[in-house]
Specification:
The chain contains 22 helices and five strands. The protein is mainly alpha-helical. A five-stranded parallel β-sheet has the order 3-2-1-4-5, sandwiched between helices. 45% of the residues are buried. The structure holds flavin-adenine dinucleotide.
């Protein structure tokens, strides 16, 4: 009988183009998948119901994919360092495979699981899957990790990229007796979101599972329309000009090699410098994703606090009322409020608006960026530690970005990126009938605010900007 290999899924909920799973399949035809519902993650205070909804839906789709490939995906619920070794031992597994991760918690968890498996003389094989280049593969001339994006991008882009790996097929699953043993060792049916004590009633921007992610990729890249206009349209929140693949990339319902192969094919097909530039801008976003992953891997302290000195002991006001107004989209700044309502209602926010609301929270309200970072994690269905932390530190000016201080003016941002107030009207229905000029600038007369039950601005941008600059200067010493 073939030896049994267990593949532990975490942020790679697919059987196509999955490096670790493909190597488990090479090791043995008898490959069974496992996913562990981890209480350390699911019971944490920054879990988003929308994100868990996407994850559970993707697990359900993955179970079907396994069955079609001839095997099965088991579900466990418990501390991974206990649950995984217990299952592996009950099934007399020869080797456990997984794709390694950059997050500090994942690194510690994986080390504990590896140790427990070692005690049982079970082999462990790990692969790099979530990016095109593993941390350490892209280094400066001096051999150090990059802390600045542009040179990282040049070096990263110059390296050849791996092709997608083979999808799992012709696999062999557990026998009925082994299935019983798995149950005894903790395998359960996939719970619903309600079983986990959460609810999310709305449709997600992207449906869970491999198929919708792949279709979205094709739709975005293959017709050469959206991707070919990406650089021109990506900053307009009222336009569906971006790929909307972030949750798929976060949970790995699509493989990054597949994504890159499609983007690269579009680049090769491009007939004008204009199209080439647009497609390459999208590739640069994929590189931002990896830049932040590498940064978190080499500088895990980023997860806990600021990178730059002036922000290490910064006098944040941390006003609870202001924070609440920001969370609810009731700051009196229409572009900020529209964005926060989009987040609260859909579990997603357009990138331009993520930058606007993050700048507003930190520079205008002078609230610690970690409050915003956490609120995003509690609501984003694509919430991802590396990208979210990177985005927040960039916006707060506390991160690796070489530009010392960046302060967005909400009115100028709205004028430039939502000039007809389409986005603002979509998410702020109570003021949709007001003049475009009022909506964009945020200069709404008090009586109109009253009549439409919309707040007056809770702070004065000009004043707050001047104050922030002054405090920053003092902090720098
Ligand atoms: C304050 C802040 C918080 C953010 N939090 C997250 C987060 O939790 N999870 C997340 O995936 N992205 C985050 N981003 C990055 C970005 O906003 C989203 O990736 C993007 O809006 C997702 O939409 P899309 O898939 O249509 O992106 P596209 O524009 O189509 O980009 C393609 C892919 O590239 C990656 N990407 C794009 N921009 C960035 C970026 N700036 N940093 C890292 N990766 C990027 C994403 O995986 C994205 O799906 C954040 C940005 C900011 C400013």
């Amino acid at each position: 009988m073939a030896s049994l290999a267990l593949f532990w899924h975490r942020r790679d909920l697919r059987i196509a183009d999955n490096v670790g799973l493909a190597s488990a399949r090479v090791f043995s035809a008898k490959v069974v998948g496992v996913f562990c519902l981890d209480p350390n993650i699911l019971n944490s205070d920054d879990v988003a119901p929308a994100r868990v909804a996407y994850m559970l839906g993707s697990l359900e789709a993955l179970q079907e994919r396994y069955v079609k490939a001839g095997s099965q995906l088991l579900i466990l619920n418990g501390q991974p360092e206990e649950a995984i070794p217990e299952l592996a031992s009950a099934l007399e597994v020869r080797a456990v495979f997984w794709n390694w991760d950059v997050e500090p918690y994942a690194k510690a968890r994986d080390a504990a699981v590896r140790e427990a498996l070692k005690q049982q003389a079970i082999e462990v094989h790990t692969s790099w899957d979530q990016g095109l280049h593993a941390p350490g593969e892209v280094r400066t001339g001096g051999g150090t990790p990059y802390t600045v994006y542009t040179p990282f991008w040049r070096n990263w882009n110059s390296k050849s990229k791996a092709a997608p790996v083979e999808e799992l097929q012709d696999a062999e699953g557990l026998t009925a007796a082994e299935g019983q043993a798995a149950k005894k060792a903790g395998a359960i049916a996939l719970p619903s979101l309600k079983d986990l004590g959460m609810s999310w009633e709305r449709d997600l921007l992207l449906s869970p599972g491999e198929q919708p992610a792949f279709e979205r990729l094709e739709e975005f890249v293959e017709d050469d329309r959206a991707i070919a206009e990406y650089d021109d349209q990506r900053n307009q929140p009222s336009v569906a000009g971006t790929s909307m693949l972030s949750a798929a990339l976060k949970f790995g319902t699509i493989g990054i090699r597949t994504v890159w192969a499609y983007a690269d094919a579009a680049l090769s097909r491009s007939r004008s410098d204009e199209t080439y530039r647009n497609i390459q801008t999208w590739q640069q976003e994929l590189a931002w994703r990896e830049f932040y992953q590498h940064a978190l891997y080499f500088f895990p302290e980023l997860a806990d606090g600021p990178y730059r000195e002036p922000f290490k002991d910064f006098p944040w006001t941390n006003d609870e009322e202001d924070f609440q107004a920001w969370c609810e989209g009731r700051t009196g700044y229409p572009i900020v409020d529209a964005a926060m309502r989009q987040l609260n209602e859909t579990g997603w926010m357009h990138n331009r608006c993520r930058m606007i609301v993050a700048s507003f929270l930190t520079k205008d309200l002078r609230i610690d960026w970690r409050w915003g970072e956490k609120y995003f994690m509690q609501h984003l269905y694509d919430g991802d530690l590396a990208a979210n932390n990177g985005g927040w530190q960039w916006s707060a000016s506390s991160g690796m970005d070489p530009k010392p201080l960046r302060i967005f003016n909400p009115a100028s941002q709205a004028k430039k990126y939502d000039p007809d107030a389409e986005y603002i009207r979509q998410w702020l229905p109570e003021i949709r009938t007001l003049d475009t000029e009022m909506l964009v600038t945020g200069n709404i007369p008090a009586e109109e605010c009253d009549r439409h039950n919309y707040p007056m601005p809770i702070v004065d941008h000009k004043q707050q900007q001047a104050q922030f600059k002054q405090i920053y200067k003092e902090q720098k010493g």
